[in-house]
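Lecture notes, part 5. Sequence design as translation. It can be helpful to think of inverse folding as translation between two languages: the language of shapes and the language of residues. The source text, in structure tokens, appears below.
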């Protein structure tokens, strides 16, 4: 991997072409976001912006070739790459991984607010998306059964939060990839040290915890959606606690498998548990109490 990353980073055009390829092949988009983050972290936001713009320009003729509106393809790519550049600029400037992840949460919450601040209500937009996207999928399924109006309304209520959480997750994963690749190339072991010490701070944790509680006690759509973004953000601190405890206590990485298995099989409950762990960590300090850092972290990357 180190040789491949070095080859990509040796030229702006190489970086732009690889980012363009990941934008054209949608399921590789996170890799492109990670590469944009790496360029921004290593060479600065101006170079990262140049790579992102070159790649997005290359998507225009590709979109025309496949019969897709160019503004949709290029705009979708830039909606990931540009916020990642802002996050990488902040990380490069402040060396604060937590602050940069919080920027991802802020972008996600802005998506939620945009839904509910539009001339139509957030519920109307969400229900229209459900009718246009999910209902045809139900109709095309084997049994062809479409849920009732109550079930469709319940799905629509989740749309703003799900979309915002998906964007936030993509931004965070892209930045983490970029930081990890930066460590592989230039600072072995640096990513592990950063991630194991991830802590959002009292203000962010209290705000996220408040949204968590309000969502449990109310049925207000905007609160539910904002709480989903907050839970995702806090989840990463919970994951950092788990990784740090396992690594510092000399345990096998196998002990982390149940955590990720739960995230796959029971996404929201597992995310909520990890978010609760993050809230408790700011009170109890699990890492300091049960597995203090030795100052000699293993140089291998997670």
């Amino acid at each position: 991997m180190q040789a491949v990353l070095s080859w990509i980073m040796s030229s702006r055009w190489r970086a732009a072409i690889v980012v363009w390829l990941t934008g054209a092949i949608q399921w590789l988009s996170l890799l492109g976001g990670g590469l944009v983050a790496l360029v921004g972290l290593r060479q600065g936001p101006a170079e990262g912006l140049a790579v992102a713009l070159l790649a997005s320009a290359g998507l225009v003729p590709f979109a025309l070739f496949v019969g897709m509106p160019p503004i949709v393809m290029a705009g979708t790519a830039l909606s990931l790459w540009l916020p990642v550049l802002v996050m990488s600029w902040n990380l490069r400037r402040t060396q604060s991984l937590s602050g940069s992840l919080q920027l991802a949460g802020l972008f996600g919450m802005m998506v939620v607010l945009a839904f509910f601040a539009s001339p139509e209500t957030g519920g109307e937009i969400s229900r229209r998306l459900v009718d246009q996207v999910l209902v045809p999928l139900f109709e095309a399924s084997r049994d062809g059964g479409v849920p009732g109006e109550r079930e469709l309304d319940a799905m629509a209520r989740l749309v703003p939060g799900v979309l915002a959480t998906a964007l936030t997750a993509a931004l965070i994963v892209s930045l983490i990839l970029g930081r990890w690749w930066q460590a592989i190339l230039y600072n072995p072991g640096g990513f592990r040290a950063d991630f194991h010490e991830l802590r959002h701070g009292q203000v962010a944790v209290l705000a996220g915890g408040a949204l968590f509680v309000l969502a449990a006690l109310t049925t207000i759509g905007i609160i539910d959606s904002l709480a989903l973004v907050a839970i995702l953000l806090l989840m990463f601190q919970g994951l950092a606690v788990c990784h740090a405890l396992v690594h510092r206590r000399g345990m096998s990485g196998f002990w982390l498998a149940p955590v990720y298995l739960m995230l796959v099989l029971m996404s929201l409950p597992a995310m909520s548990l990890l978010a609760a762990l993050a809230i408790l960590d700011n009170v109890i300090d699990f890492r300091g109490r049960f597995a203090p850092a030795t100052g000699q972290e293993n140089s291998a990357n997670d």
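The translated text above is only one of many valid answers, since several sequences can fold into similar shapes. The chain is about 80% helix and 0% strand.
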